[in-house]
Write a structure and sequence with these properties.
- This protein is an alpha+beta fold.
- 39% of the residues lie in helices and 27% in strands.
- Strands 1, 3, 6, 8, 9, 10, 11 and 12 form an 8-stranded antiparallel sheet that branches.
- Helix 2 packs antiparallel against helix 3.
């Protein structure tokens, strides 16, 4: 009886060990199949980093009156494209014109006097000193005429470059002082977009520049649409802001359609 019991126990242990071995083998095979089924997936990933940005025109200037007086003519309109050299404002030209005509007449009269004095000097009628005095008066009147001509030219304000004109700060008939602001003019054929970069990103981007790789940036407009032209971050300012821990970058964007304007905001 004891032998039978020992035989049954041994048989039970043998069967249990076989089942356990079979289960472990099956599990190992499943794991092997899973490992064989896995394949490494390689893909180039572009990491985009967004920064708040502000748009500036490459040229943005204030146009001011050179002379005190009344605005007598306005040749342009607000928000229009103004060509280089195009007339924009005229400030009281009549009075300046009168001064110029007076100075011109005095110069021409002195010029005739000098020519007559020079002939008389050659005939030994007048002295060399008298000729020198007339010549000096001629130079003085010439300088006065040139000065009034400069004032006459400055009475008409013309565009120094091609750009978009801003709003009027004066109206026709306004009395303006010397240096009074008339309007502003922006050249937006190209744009400078400024954005602040953290120290970590600054170091990474600097390494990229050292490798000769341009830092290309895209501009996301306020309506959520991407500006169709790509810019290049070509300038980094000299110092970090101690309060924010950032440094300003400047990216240059082409703007041939003049869609973006000076002062806009968005993200790069």
């Amino acid at each position: 009886m004891e032998l039978l019991i020992k035989y049954l126990k041994l048989s039970y242990l043998t069967v249990f060990a076989f089942v356990l071995f079979a289960g472990c083998r099956h599990k190992h095979e499943e794991e092997s199949e899973a490992l064989r089924a896995a394949r490494p997936w390689r893909q180039d990933v572009v990491v985009n980093q967004e920064y708040v940005a502000q748009v500036k025109a490459i040229q943005h200037i204030e146009l001011r009156a050179f002379e005190k007086g009344y605005v007598t003519r306005i040749f342009v309109d607000e928000g229009r494209l103004i060509k280089k050299g195009q007339k924009m404002f005229q400030v009281m030209p009549m009075l300046v014109t009168a001064h110029y005509e007076k100075a011109k007449a005095e110069y021409e009269a002195t010029e005739i006097e000098f020519e007559n004095t020079e002939r008389l000097f050659q005939q030994n009628v007048v002295s060399k000193t008298e000729l020198a005095l007339v010549k000096a008066r001629l130079k003085k009147n010439k300088a006065a005429m040139d000065l009034t001509k400069s004032h006459l030219d400055l009475a008409t304000v013309s565009a120094p470059f091609t750009g978009i004109m801003d709003k009027f700060n004066v109206r026709l008939g306004s009395l303006v002082d010397e240096g009074a602001l008339l309007t502003t003019l922006s050249d937006i054929s190209k744009l400078w977009v400024y954005f602040n970069v953290s120290e970590k990103d600054y170091l990474n981007l600097t390494d990229q520049r050292k490798r000769g790789e341009p830092i290309q940036v895209r501009f996301m407009m306020a309506n959520g649409k991407e500006f169709k032209y790509t810019g290049v971050a070509d300038t980094i300012e000299g110092e970090f802001d101690n309060e924010t821990g950032t440094i300003p970058f400047r990216a240059t964007f082409p703007n041939p359609d003049r869609l973006l304007r000076h002062g806009e905001t968005g993200n790069v």
